[in-house]
Amino acid sequence: MNVVIKTPEQIEKMRIAGRLGAEVLDYITPFVKAGVTTGQLDELCHDYMVDVQGTIPATLNYAPPGHKPYPASCCTSVNHQVCHGIPGDKLLKNGDIINIDVTVIADGYHGDNSRMFYIGEPSIQAKRLCESTYEAMWRGIRQVRPGGLLGEIGYAIQSYAEKQGFSVVREFCGHGVGKKFHEEPQILHYGKANSGMVMKPGMIFTVEPMINAGRKEIRMLGDGWGVVTADHSLSAQWEHTVLVTETGFEVLTVSAGTPAPPALMAATASAH
Ligand code: MF3
Ligand code: CO
Ligand code: CO
C-alpha cells in the first residue's frame, strides 16, 4: 500500500493546481460550440496553460507503460467516445456532447478534472445522461470522509447510475494524484459498499465516473488511446480532484466557473 498522505504544504500546492486545472475548463467553455474542431480546442488549452498560466499540460507526451506518448494537452471525447479521445480535425456539430479532460502540473503538483459540454441542443436522452453522470460523480464525492471505505464511493455511483438505466465503465477508475499523475489508490466507480481501503485525512484522489447510455462494454480505437462504447451508445464523464479532510471532503478542482453541485449536495456537510 503506497497511498501518499499529503502534508499541509502539499495540500496547499494541490489546491492551487486544482484551481488552475479548473480555470482551463472555464477558459475553454466559450469556444466549445458548433464549427470548432477538437484540435483547435486542444491548441487553445495548450496555449492558455503554457503562455497564460505557466503550467505544464500533464497529458502532453504522457506515456505510461504499454502506451505510446499521448500527443495532446487535453482529452476530447465526443458522443460515444468514453475517454482519452485525441483532439484532431473532428468538427463539433449541433447536438454533440463532449467531455474535455484537462490536467495541469503547477509547481510539481497535478490538478486533474473534466466536464461535459453541450454543442447547441443535444437530445433529451443525451442531456439526461450528462446530468445523471454529474449527479453520480457527486454521489461518489459525498461518500468521502475519514474512516469511510473507498468502496462506498463506487457503490454510490453504480447504484445511482444503474437506477437511471445506465451502465458504469469498469476498465478505468479514479486515482490518487499529487506529484504523480496517477498513483494509489484506485477509485472504482462500481462495487460493494462494505469494501475497500479506509480513507484517511490528507489522501487526495480523483472521482471520475464514465457512464454509458447503453451497455458497459468498451472498445479501444486504433490510435492507441481513444476508447469508445462497444454498442456505440453515448457516454459521459465528469471528474474532480478531492481531498479527504478531518471532517469530510474538499473538492480541489474549483474555480469561478465550476458548475454548482446538484441539489442533493445542499444537505451534505463538507469541509467548505
Ligand atoms: N486525465 C485523465 C485522467 O483523468 C488521464 C488522461 S491520460 C491521457 O486520469 F494520456 F490520455 F491524456
Ligand atoms: Co482527467
Ligand atoms: Co483522472
Element layout with pairings:
Layout: H1 8-28, H2 38-53, E1 56-57, E2 75-78, E3 81-83, E4 97-106, E5 109-118, H3 124-141, H4 151-163, E6 167-168, E7 174-176, E8 183-187, E9 204-207, E10 210-212, E11 218-220, E12 227-229, E13 235-237, E14 240-244, E15 249-251
Antiparallel strand pairs: 1-4, 2-4, 3-12, 4-5, 6-10, 7-8, 9-14, 10-13, 11-12, 14-15
Helix pairs in contact: 1-2, 3-4
The structure holds 2-amino-4-trifluoromethylsulfanyl-butyric acid and cobalt (II) ion (2 copies).
One cobalt (II) ion binds next to loops.
Defining key terms:
25% helix; binds 2-amino-4-trifluoromethylsulfanyl-butyric acid; globular; alpha+beta; Creatine Amidinohydrolase; binds cobalt (II) ion; 272 residues
Provide structural commentary.
By secondary structure, the chain is of the alpha+beta class. It has one domain: Creatinase/methionine aminopeptidase superfamily (Creatine Amidinohydrolase). The protein is built from 4 helices and 15 strands. Strands 1, 2, 4 and 5 form a 4-stranded antiparallel β-sheet that branches. Strands 3-12-11 form a 3-stranded antiparallel β-sheet, with no helix packed on it. α3 packs antiparallel against α4. The chain is globular and about 45 Å long. The chain binds 2-amino-4-trifluoromethylsulfanyl-butyric acid and cobalt (II) ion (2 copies). The site of one cobalt (II) ion (CO) has 5 residues, from loops.
